[in-house]
Write a structure and sequence with these properties.
The complex is a heterodimer of chains A (535) and B (336).
Chain A (H helix, E strand, L loop, with lengths): L6 H6 L1 H22 L7 H5 L2 H34 L6 H7 L2 H4 L2 H12 L4 H6 L13 H20 L8 H10 L3 H29 L3 H6 L8 H11 L3 H25 L22 H31 L2 H5 L2 H37 L4 H12 L6 H14 L7 H39 L3 H29 L3 H5 L8 H10 L3 H27 L1
Chain B lengths: L1 H16 L10 E7 H4 L5 H12 L2 E7 L2 H11 L7 E6 L3 H6 L3 E2 L20 E13 L10 H6 L6 E4 L5 H14 L3 H8 L3 E5 L2 H9 L5 E5 L2 H9 L4 E4 L5 E11 L5 H11 L2 H11 L2 E2 L20 E2 L3 H19 L2
Parallel strand pairs in B: 1-2, 1-3, 6-7, 6-8, 10-12
Antiparallel strand pairs in B: 3-10, 4-10, 5-8, 5-9, 5-10, 5-11
Helix pairs in contact in B: 7-8, 8-13
Classes of the chains: A mainly alpha (535), B alpha/beta (336).
Chain lengths: 535, 336
């Protein structure tokens, strides 16, 4: 037998299995470390407490609503961007779309409040006109608003590569058949989108499910509480690690079940293999009504996303700009954050590629779609596991082996890597699988494998989504505050921690400048990685 | 090419990850505290050189998120902890801290010290204190309520932003304050107040930030908050509503650890906290009141009429036993 034909078989299962095993070890290990650090606890009391049941209900309810709103609205916006591939400012708009999700939550919340709050921009504009805002931001409305602000642009960016998967042949056939715009969507675009949708839905759902500071700040009171809040309370305030471990496990189980349900419900269609081409050849770009629709979708989405960001920029510019920027500490903190971001993203990239390769192997070689989905689900589930629990667990383990002081930043990077893994995985797996569908046989015939195959065949197919995901992951871990705050960062604080310190010391004006710098750096990082890799 | 650049960046990133342990020729005193104490804007950077100048040692601060996290860290580490001193627990946490069995009596003769608050404890030393209070924006609120009862009982009263007692110290402080004033009727007080609570935030920063954005005319903070605005921003816009019933007191304390290898240094440090030098640093860096009467008067920004006439507090042991129960009742009342 030609040895080349053996390649996928030999290469097939183990990368994903190793990564899955590592993730399992990390989750089980940290869970055990945290659980065993506690006094005896009563599981039943926690889980069947009426208030806790209310919390679970609310968590699922707000996460479902937030996901539906974000993803459903994202489809027309992404379609508009896909249909108009060449207008001025498109690139910048798309790059900036990655910003909301990577901003520290507290900063984003201040931005949202500056626009939609009681004394926000909208109310200030409406008041002289004798109108007051019909919506009360504090409560479910505020939570949904904030979650849409974070996740709508994210979903747009995650869905957008779907249009790259539509083949030129399909557009041509559709054109010959004289399909209307609606028919194009249904028969040509939807199959491509549906390959991306489960991933997007799972990510957005998990993000909203585990949302914490947004829910507490904009929720208006304890009736709006997520399980994550209960975990924080158990771990940090009550100091009951056992209970925290139980709650984390409950959250994980609930998330896995919900995600499985969501995926089952979303019918995944496999896009037809064929040569990909420029979407400019699609037949429905000339119609005036379509143009109007697309540009209003883009405009509305941009205003919604960029108004809070503009508010943050303005309040940053009003602050003591020079003194904050000239502070050497700021740049040291930024360098540290960058180190964490690069390490975390590289780690996550390797893990995501391992899982995606095995997922491809399972679909193409073994025809096991369920197993493939499971593989992808494992890689996404880390979003459902509280970083606080992973962090505390790692800390306990490091404590036992006397390494706490020396590996703090490495621990922060590990937790971040696990947190950004889902984005990377969900972004690259559709492209990688579709590359396999097209070129598997060709590669086998040519004896292309390993690095050569990755470089020549797979990478061009996943380059754009991978660039976006790497950029997102980098910026996310750059702007991460939650995990870094867990560890002792005295003497080596990260940029987001610095921002928080300023706020704790009443320096809200300096914090606004720091937030501006942080946002700019996130954008720069994003732009560099995204552009650098996708061209 | 891109790949090589990426690899190079990865290598550089990894190198920055691994901190090198420093060797110490002089003895090191390790003090665990909360993060804002050692941030660039806190008292830590001022206290460190001052203490090192006279102890001939290396003072190392380790900052953890907040007071609650500090206690959690101590419990996590147990006897493995490298801490010699723990600084920054507050009154609601001291009982639980003592129950860990990790702390040692301070063994200091404090008879000569003129404390500004009544305090006697063999283990904990108070270094500063403050009172919770509602800070208001005088440009938006001309007539703030003059008592907690008035705040609760005026259906048309000002809207407020508060913190969650599950996740923040001021939030817990308000819960205790209301309990102190209303006793067993505290939950009806909460029910009456609840329509005017704009939101309940995770921590002080979120609440105060929203207040400064103008989301509510009043916020739960400290009676010393206006002093910050006067001292640093030279504005009298933000004031504290002084309540007739008195204000709930928060005392911040320090203690030394039983297994410390530097017991004498630890004692020196605790005593140093009460020195005029440190006590003069605290008001304008930690924005709390000094625990000791010093020669030096408080900075002008701290006004006498912002000092509560009545100080309210529960016994730490009572807080420790009842806290969970009280929080639960609060949850069920407000979650309705």
């Amino acid at each position: 037998m030609n040895p080349a034909f053996n390649t996928p078989r030999r290469f097939g299962l183990w990368p994903g299995l190793i990564v899955a095993l590592l993730l399992a070890v990390l989750i089980v290990g940290t869970l055990t470390a945290v659980g065993s650090a506690s006094r005896p606890f009563s599981v039943a009391v926690t889980l069947f407490d009426p208030y806790f049941l209310q919390v679970v209900q609310f968590t699922v309810w707000q996460a479902t609503l937030s996901t539906l709103i974000s993803v459903i609205l994202a489809i027309p916006v992404a379609r508009a961007y896909a249909r108009r591939p060449a207008f001025i400012g498109r690139g910048i708009l798309i790059t900036l779309m990655g910003l909301p999700v990577v901003m520290p939550v507290i900063v984003a919340v201040f931005g949202i409040v500056a626009v939609y709050g009681r004394s926000g921009l909208l109310n200030t504009v409406l008041k002289p006109a004798g109108l007051t805002l019909p919506l009360e931001i504090y409560g479910l409305t505020g939570i949904l608003l904030a979650h849409t602000f974070f996740n709508l642009p994210l979903a747009v960016r995650l869905i957008l590569p779907a249009w790259d998967q539509v083949t030129a042949e399909n557009w041509r056939t559709a054109s010959t058949l004289g399909m209307s715009s609606g028919q194009l969507f249904r028969f040509v675009e939807w199959p491509a989108i549906s390959a991306f949708l489960p991933g997007v839905v799972v990510i957005v759902f998990l993000l909203c499910f585990t949302s914490f500071a947004v829910v507490l700040t904009l929720g208006g009171g304890p009736s709006a509480t997520t399980i994550e809040v209960a975990i924080y309370q158990a771990l940090r305030f009550e100091f009951d690690p056992g209970q925290a471990a139980i709650l984390a496990l409950t959250q994980l189980v609930l998330c896995v079940c919900s995600a499985l349900l969501l995926i089952r419900w979303l019918r995944v269609l496999t896009p037809t293999p064929g040569r990909r081409n420029d979407p400019a050849i699609r037949p429905d770009t000339a119609a005036r009504s379509g143009k109007l629709l697309d540009f209003s979708a883009i405009l509305v989405c941009s205003v919604f996303v960029f108004a809070p960001i503009a508010a943050l920029v303005l309040s940053g510019l009003r602050g003591p700009l020079v003194s904050v920027i000239l502070d050497i500490g700021l740049w040291q903190a930024a360098a540290r954050s960058l180190g964490i971001a690069v390490t975390a993203t590289s780690l996550a990239g390797v893990m995501a590629f391992g899982l995606a390769t095995t997922a491809r192997f399972l679909t193409l070689e073994r025809r096991k779609h369920q197993a493939k989905e499971l593989m992808l689900l494992i890689g996404s589930m880390t979003l459902a596991f509280p970083p606080m629990v992973i962090g505390t667990g790692l800390f306990l383990i490091a404590l036992r082996i006397d390494l706490v002081g020396s590996i703090t930043l490495l621990m922060i990077a590990t937790v971040n890597a696990v947190m950004v893994l889902p984005y990377l995985l969900r972004s690259i797996s559709p492209g990688l699988i579709s590359s396999g569908q097209q070129y598997q046989k060709l590669c086998a015939q040519l004896g292309l494998r390993g690095w050569q195959r990755f470089r020549r065949v797979d990478w061009p197919m996943i380059r754009r989504p991978a660039a976006f995901a790497l950029a997102l992951g980098g910026a996310l871990s750059f702007g991460d505050m939650g995990v870094a705050a867990l560890f002792d960062t005295t003497g080596h604080i990260t940029l987001p921690v610095m921002l928080y310190h300023r706020m704790s010391a009443y320096r809200f004006d300096e914090a606004a400048v720091t937030a501006l710098v942080l946002a700019l750096m996130c954008v720069a990082l994003f732009w560099l990685v995204d552009r650098g890799l996708s061209r | 090419m891109t790949c090589f650049r990426l690899l190079a960046a990865l290598g550089a990133g990894l190198l920055t990850m691994i901190g090198l342990p420093t060797s110490a020729a002089t003895p090191t005193l390790t003090v665990y505290t909360y993060a804002s104490f050692v941030s660039d804007w806190g008292p830590g950077p001022l206290i460190e050189p001052a203490f090192e100048a006279h102890c001939g040692c290396d003072l190392k601060f380790v900052g953890v998120e907040d007071g609650a996290a500090l206690l959690g860290r101590l419990k996590l580490e147990g006897s493995r902890s490298s801490a010699d001193v723990i600084l920054g627990l507050d009154t609601s946490l001291v009982t639980e801290a003592q129950q860990t069995g990790l702390l040692e009596p301070h063994d200091l003769n404090l008879g000569a010290i003129d404390f500004a608050l009544s305090w006697s404890d063999p283990v904990f030393i108070p270094y500063d204190f403050g009172y919770f209070g509602f800070v208001y924006d005088s440009e938006k609120l001309a007539n703030p309520p003059t008592s907690l009862r008035a705040l609760v009982n005026q259906p048309q009263g000002p809207r407020i932003i508060i913190q969650d007692p599950r996740t923040s110290t001021p939030g817990l402080g308000l819960l205790l304050w209301v309990r102190k004033i209303f006793g067993d009727n505290d939950m009806s007080a909460w029910a009456a107040l609840s329509p005017r609570i704009v939101t309940v935030t995770k921590g002080w920063s979120e609440a105060y930030g929203l207040f400064l954005e103008g989301e509510a005319p009043m916020v739960l903070s400290y009676t010393t908050s206006p002093a910050y605005h006067r001292h640093v921003e030279q504005t009298d816009q933000y004031r504290v509503a002084m309540f007739e019933e008195g204000h709930y007191q928060q005392v911040e304390v320090a203690a030394r650890l039983a297994h410390s290898a530097q017991p004498e240094l630890a004692k020196d440090f605790l005593r140093f906290l009460l020195s005029d030098e440190v006590q003069a640093i605290l008001p304008t860096s930690n924005w709390m009141l000094p625990a000791v009467h010093t020669e030096q008067a408080l900075p002008e920004a701290f006004r006498d009429d912002e000092l509560p006439r009545t100080s309210l507090s529960f016994e730490p042991s009572e807080v420790s036993t009842e806290r969970r129960h009280w929080i639960k009742r609060w949850l069920t009342t407000l979650a309705r």
